[in-house]
Amino acid sequence: MPRSTDREPQSRSGVPWRLIPPIATDGLTQMAIDDWMIDRVRQGHPPILRFYTWSEPTLSLGFHQTRIPDHWWAGSSTATAADRDRPSPSVPALPIPLVRRPSGGRAVLHGTTGEKQTDRDQPGELTYAIVMPTQGKRRTVIYCDLCRFLIQGWASLGVTLHLGCDRDYADRSSCFGTATAADLVTDAGTKLIGSAQLYRGETVLQHGSMQLNPDRDRFIHVFGEPCEVPDLPWLTIDQIVAALTEAARSWFNVTFETQAIRATEWIEIEARRDRFRVSEPSPNLTNRYIGSEGGDRRQP
Predict the structure, then answer these.
(1) Spatial distance between the Cα atoms of 203 and 134, rounded to a whole number of angstroms
(2) In whole angstroms, what is the distance from residue 279 CA to residue 300 CA?
């Protein structure tokens, strides 16, 4: 791995990247923000990095994912707050909201917390999103390059990660039921980070879920199979975000300017929320969205 000081800056000379402070909100809004970010950078604004959490347990689907079990659909529109908070394992932890990601890949369960948590206010999952120009690089190179800051950041926290590989990816409905070459696994082989991409023109969005302490019972209820919980040191969300931000600064050889989303930008974001609502069979929703926006969604 080359030293960060040997790397060329990934943004225009002297222009800092934008760092959006962490936001905890619903899935539709989170996906609308990520979608807005790629258009923002495509219009010539500097690259953007952000980390976020989900305000309630939510199942996000890959944009072209067609394997949607009936019990997932039952949860997309009929759930009440009481339904979503039912205890497990005696009562199934369904239904939960569904949201369609702008990127590819398989389903991811967000916003849940497992049993080993000592601080109940700390989420069991953290999501990241980064948007930047492709600079003419091949897509496999871009995946590896963007994953490097995650590897470097987690290494500073005492966790060694490396790229995963699984030939059975196409047979799984859960993103965390397998590990592809774009995902990051621990030395024990447990998948910690699952990522996917969206390309629009010469701009790429990569976002991914870090499963810090997933709810095993809820995972089984949703996917019908157990999940592995990574063996991690106890860390706060603030510690993880700080380490990964510093790693991004070092790896990409850039500076960051922290800038919250402005009121005028929130108006643009809110207008995108319904694009990611799951309320009808995916072929109809997919055709409508591609016809209006386009884009290439990848998960290798």
Answers:
(1) 5
(2) 27
